[in-house]
Fold each of these.
Amino acid sequence: MASVRPLSKSDSLIRGRMGAHMNGASSSRASVPEFSTPKAPATSEFSAPKEPEKHGELKLWQAYVHVVKGNVGPGCLSMPYAFSQGGLIPSLCIMIVFAPACIYCMLLLVWSKHKMLLDGGARGVSPRQINFEEVGVYALGTMGGKIIEVFVLFTQLGVCSIYFDFCSTNLHAVFPNVEAKVFIILMTPVTMMTVLIRDARGLVVFSTIASFFIVSALLTIYGEVIPHLGGDLYKGPIRMFGQLDRVPLVFGSLAFAFEGIGLILPIESSLAENQRAGFPRVLGIGMTTVAIIFLITGVLCFVALGTVDNASITASLLGVGLGEKVLDLLNMMVCAAVFLTYPLQFLPAAQIVEKKTGQDQTVTAKFRGIAPEGASNEAVALIPTGERALTNAPMAAGTSDTRATEESVRLSINESSTPPPEAPPGCLRSCTWKGRLVPLWILLRMMLVLGTALCAYSLPDLGILITLIGSVCSTTLGLILPPIIHQRLYGDTYSVARYTLHGAVMLIGVVGGSLGFFSAVKDLLASASGER
């Protein structure tokens, strides 16, 4: 009997990957499985690789929950402030126009992805890996994808800055003897630790707890304000119209509140393939639910309180003396929910920065010990390419020796006809701290967190920051780019009515976003000079 050599880490990995092929092979040397020339992968109706269903795939009702959860956050709790600034009637009119336009643009983005897959634009990439930026690259070219990346980067980092400001404002309401900016300083190192989780799957527990806290907070808010709708807190008449120069702030706040545009394609991709056709309907129902929650929160709190001067309604409720112990607990729950959501909102921005600096997980896999010790740099740079080579690797003719098979697989990885790109420069960089090497991706994430904290520390007002981010970034991603992308892909089928509709949606985004931006800048300058 032939002696058996010990398995190395490289051998163990390759043998594990080849297990599926070896199970079907005959133990006889004369019986060798035949491997034909690799063929194109089977495609679905969208000309993308068909994937087997997995246990982690979402059902339609779960997608509905994710759509609602991804849009109900600090933006929802700022609705009373927006209604107070614009007045009841202008705020309602803006919401009636803005909400359907935003929902329609989300649907345009989903349909654009379907068109990309139907045209074969995925080029063998799994539909699960297609996001906003990749649809933009396919429709608008490389420059279009870079523009989307920039806006996604600034939107997500802006949201993270708002989270810092929001938490510090609510904590200051609970502990008035401590300055709000002190809480920003105290939160920064703890937040740096939470963002070291690099995979969204590791944030599921955070997201679940945050969802429970947000739902509990909304129910508590409704329970506190509904008994006071009769006017015992606010004796004056309901303000139907606000000052004209304050109306654009309503648009910016609404644009920020509908913050889930970047989550739509990941949610759709997580559905089982046989349920994706029903996602547009679920998306429409989910976003309509979100708009109703925004409307109820804004109207109830505005009518009960009359004037809301704080972009955090939970902090405003403390100022009017409603059940202080209950509201202290409410503020703490909201802070916990927002704090636990920070890593998830931070993730897209961190992935973009890491991708541009060569610190993404695929490139650094070898240096974290995931890749086999004996693998070459080329084989590790793109692991999926190596996996495709494994699938199509021929067995050594005339033998069933496992060692020969493993050798042929090893050769097929290193001599693939489609060599993966070289690892970007900088992927090996690290810094030394107290005599130890620190991976660059950790330092990058900590610097990004520090940047968001400094932004929140520098800006004097949470409402101004919300309006700035909503007017510029959220409006561009949510109302301007989706019609442009859809027109590039479906333009030959457009009617005059469709051109008119998309032109109107983009006009709403450009005009509303511009007015909101200039109004926020005006408030920022006034606040900096002490006039506000």
Amino acid sequence: PPVSVSHAMGVMIRRAMFSAWWCSQIAAGLVAPASVRPGARVPGEEYDVVVIGSGIGGLSCGGLLAATGLEVCVLEAHYELGGCAHEFAVDMDGRTVPSGRGSEERLFQFEAGPSLYSGLSPDRSPNPLKHVFQMIEEEPEWVKYDTWGAFLPEAPEGYELSIGADNFKEILRRYGGPTAVGDWERLSARVRPLAKGIMGLPSTAVRGDAGILLTLGAQYPAALLNVVANAESALAPFDMSSPESPFYVEDDFLRNYLTLIAFLLQGLPADGTLTAVMAYMIEDFYREGAVMDFPKGGSRGIVDALVRGVDKRPGSGVFRSTPVESVLVENGRAVGVRTATGALVKARRAVVSNADLATTLDLVPLGAHPAFDADRHLLEDLPLCKSFVHVHLAVPAHAVPDRAPPQWTVCSSWERGIDARGAVVVVSVASKLDPSLAPPGYHVLHAYTAGNEPWAPWEAFQGAKPNDPDYLRAKELAAKPIFDAIAKWAPDARDLAVVEQIASPLTHARFLRRRKGNYGLAIRIGEGVQFPPVTTPLPGYFRCGDSTTAGIGVPAVASSGAQCANAIMSVWDQLKLNRRIRM
């Protein structure tokens, strides 16, 4: 049971598409992420724990460990923090302005990753990132809203309605078939008891050892018994197509809609997703009083809160512009890292990689540890999710109508498949939610193909110059469905834009240091392959992020960071932190 519970809890709902690091520099002059900013802080020589990467997973792990009194060092290669969830700024001329280098009032703040968040503003929530904030006692301010727009095959003219149970039924009545509402009510009734157990167990309290009996069993006995009793169903793929399935959905619109939501949140269609994840999603999005949350300051608000959780602790710190070259292995154990400048940073307790799987493996030299090499051989060819094409626009405020929703999704055809190239596009106008993200009189738009851009068409451009005509044409072609999606609500946005940037999978590969620009592992449930755990065969070397057991999405990577920290700290330290969680 502990293994099943750990897996079920580790795969909580995936949120908010992410990835794309600087969707700017290819068009406007690239700045190497390894370049050290003048005046940047330099890490010390030794800490209890060294974390490689400042993504949400790495910062969550580092903040929790620092909260127990350990000295933690987080090393980030880039000069902006946050990994896939970082934010970047450009000025009126489209020039990149690193953090702290310009007047915030005249800068456009662009998000490189997540746009959609929920379960973060309530004081009591099952969201793992909320639990991390509670445990490190830092948190951003939240803007609450409830409207989401969509353009679907059944609704080509689009709609915008509040999320929540009643409004979703209205969508089903408008665009679904005669069985849609009945199918939904039966499905909700089937998953609600399962969701109650899953949402009653904090995935941030999961451990991989017998301590789970204390952190989950003793603290949440009813919810744990519920999950164990329903483990077979919870850990199975979510099957809406088979008439014999308890989750069968006859209506095509409802089935396609839920598959779309699953893909947006964790990169795989519903039939490749755990039933536990779908149960969480259905309950969280479509319950009474449901709202969406947005951090003040954009994704940087989230990152800054997590950074404070590390920096405020004695002997701990987060360091920019400090790329790691390799993990040091001595006497069969990870004992620190070597940075790109040749400096050694030792780790008394652990080294944690928040990089993608390929980088996590490559950081350990071949031959340094036989068992790790064997694991490397097993993991190096795991399937990867596709990448993204991103567009960032800075436009005069009148280019986006006041009545437009802050976010909208466009899917033009179910038949092509939602993972077909350019088939699904998400548009976010973050400055509608937080006007401080753009200068007065302007909006910032971030739009992207939702994890459906293949790597193969871009391989030929590796090493090409940013202004290579063929590369520019390829970006323009790939971005066409994105500009079409933007035009659904803002038809003049491109013509009026004062800043325009297009990023390809090559942008991801370069600035996020991700193999083939990937957005995480594409592991379908039911095919006998599992996400790698937070532990590795190399003693003292751990991993967290979207390439580990929790998978893709903001809640998932926060959960992975917490579970990684739990694997390093004692069960007693964990219990002290877990007392701050409010479910």
Amino acid sequence: LGSTRRPHHHHLFDSPLHGSAAAMSRAVLMVKRIARVSGYTLGAGAVGAAAAGGYLCATEPGAGRAARFWIRAGPIVLNYSMARYWAKDQEDRSARYEVLHERHAPDARRIIEELRGMFIKVAQVLSIRAEIVPETYRREFRKLQDSAPASRWEAIQDTLERDLGAPLGELFDHIDKEPLGSASIGQAHLVAWRGTQAVVKVQYPEAASNMRADFWCLETLLWLVGDADAGRITRQVREQFEIELDYAQEAVHLQGLYDALTGTPAGARFAGRVAIPRPIPELTAGAVIGMEYFPGPKLETVCMQRLEALGMNLKGKSLNDWFADKAGVGTASDSLGGQAAQSAAEPSSAVSKSSRLGTWLLRLVGIDFALRFLGATADVRLRWWRPSGSSSSDGVAATTAELRDTLRLILDVHGFQLFCCPFFNGDPHPGNILMLPDGRVGLIDFGQCKALSDEERAGLARLVLALSEPGAGEAAGSNARIAEAFAATGVRSVNSDEAFLSTLPRLMFCGLTPEMLDREKLQVVFRGDKVEHMPLHMIMAYRTSMLLRGLCLVLQENVSVAHAWRPWAEMWLREHVSSGANSAAVGMAV
């Protein structure tokens, strides 16, 4: 009773229940403190990451491009991911994808046009890969133009002075700041050097970084949408374009082809008719290649003028795609995926009727006659209508007969490259072929070259022989020989169908025939099989053939690339294969 202390009910606090409550209270307090500290940490981390990302985008051009790509492409990827998630089955997913293809293909083209660079080149390559790219996207990608604005002069000057080791005033008597031409990875400038004109080709400082970023974006995008085949093809394309970034290797290509053309018995036949720029080692280092200057218009200019004389317009398409559209068939590259016939399987009745009528007329008069008639028409119109600024010696006003001789020469020299040179050029488009004032044909730009092993060359030579043998289109057993030779180059198809493996190489390397315009026949062949694997050397050989044959068709000449290359293939087999094996190889095509 006399105590003044308040009772402490220790029994309550000492009970197990109270101990748990206290522990929980302390735990909650600790969690709050950790959360508060973590918030500060995460906030600081976010600020730090944003700062680091901003610095990276400001100092690394590829990072900025990647960021812009994902900002634009992210919603597209999300839509495809949602469609795949909500799809009930494969058929439902395909239907959902078709709707998205129509919606987003134009968006994808606009993104590529905005970012340009390697995106343009890769999209153009993918536009002919029907086995991995839907037709809706390929149609949009064909509209892309491979042009690029010139780089800042200061960046070009810095690269020249850094890699060549002296100020411009000491390096050159004069240099034109306006480039002769610009592309996605570099540009060329005309210089006066030691009393003569030369060209320096300069790679953009950000070219390598941009290429790595562009391909990383594309490969990641394809991985996100779950297309393993497309990812594999894109990696193969990346390896191909990495060659073009290596200016030191391009200088080796240039020197090797120049030496082969000017210093070998086989190259002697082109003396005074074909020219490759003489390399200038003193102007070649790092991201700079120096070479002899070639004046004269590009063959591309000649093509455009002749088409305009015939009242035609490419409308931004490649020559091969333009001709394919006019002829009413897919390109040979469409057949790589077995979709040339599929795309023609459900044409509108008007298109189907016009295609049948066109095929019937071509069968009646013959493709060669039709092309010669167009050539004569172009000659007449060019005689009365000459483009402003052109002269009779600039190549633009050349007659069809003169152009035929030039085309045969171009085909011949590329066969020489394939079978007699250390490298062959896999990018002989009309912009890389010049009509020189002295009548020679000038070949430039050797960034897309490929060296062939003896095994690869032998396989390609035997395929050329099989395709160019007399009566290869009708002779009994020719399909089997062509299919066997095609498979021996390393090409694999899903079903190893003989009809497919004999028709596809004809489309790739032979002249155009009415049978190639027969949609119903192509449907039967290409619905039954498709390419599973095509080696890089065959893709590049096909690209060479496609560009050369498309060029010939636009200039009103129907050619078989296999026939043009046959003499070189026979010569290589005679010189590099044992007599017994060679006899068997040649005998396979007889």
